[in-house]
Amino acid sequence: MKRIRIGNWRKQGFEFLLIFIAVISAFALNNWNENRKTEDSENKILTAIANGLEKDIDDIRSNKRGHKKGISACVYFRKLLTNQEVNPDSLLVQYENLTRTFISIQNVAGYETLKSQGLGLVSDDSLRLQIISLYEYDFNALRKLEEEYSELQFQKNYFNEINTVLAPNFEFDENGKPSGIALPLEISENQKKILLVYLSKIEENRNFILTFYSDIETKIESVRKNITKEI
Q: Tell me: the pLDDT tens digits for 62-85?
């Protein structure tokens, strides 16, 4: 019978243990490297999203200012139509603001990169759902409201009719450019009532979109805050 020497058994066992530890260590190191790469990718994409959202907020605030100017223009022309005192020097600016419309621009590069690499790259479930909801629902809804919803197409819906009534009262300089308006306006009572209704509709719809903008602005700030915590 062949005898197994205890020394050899211990040596073989020790060598096996060393190999086992080396394999496990290599496996753990590989996992650590992969996790680090995943975490780095997540941080880079979240940073890109946060930077894009900062630009989105600038665009939102710019559009909000534009809609507020449109509301001020409604107030101005309501006074003009009801023979209240207005600043004649601001007429042309107010006229330009009255029916101005806007487009909604979103910086989606960071989000598109996230989708291409897999939405699951964002480890925080709550943050991931926030981001998806913001880009897939809120931004799309805002764009459709601002650019496609018929009630908000002020230039298309109201400018021609408003201009047809008011333009005959405009005064022009020697170069043929509008320089002011003759007061009191020479328009019929029916025309005045129609214009007053238009002004109310424009003001009402601008207030509506402003509420939507403010809601999305709050959501963007929340997402940016949570991204900052995550990275």
A: 999 999 999 999 999 999 999 999
Q: Where are the extended beta strands (E) located within 11-57? A: none
Taking the whole predicted model, whether its pTM rises above 0.85 is answered as: no
Q: What is the DSSP letter of 77?
A: H
Sign of dihedral through CA atoms 12, 17, 18, 23?
Answer: positive
Task: Of 188, 211, 177, give the one whose Cα is nearest residue 60.
Answer: 211
* CA atoms of 5 and 163, how far apart (whole Å): 108
Token pair of 200 as six digits:
């109310």
Burial of 83: CB neighbours in 10 Å, binned 0-12, 13-18, 19+: exposed
Phi, psi (degrees; rounded to nearest 5) at 73 = -65, -35
DSSP at 183: S
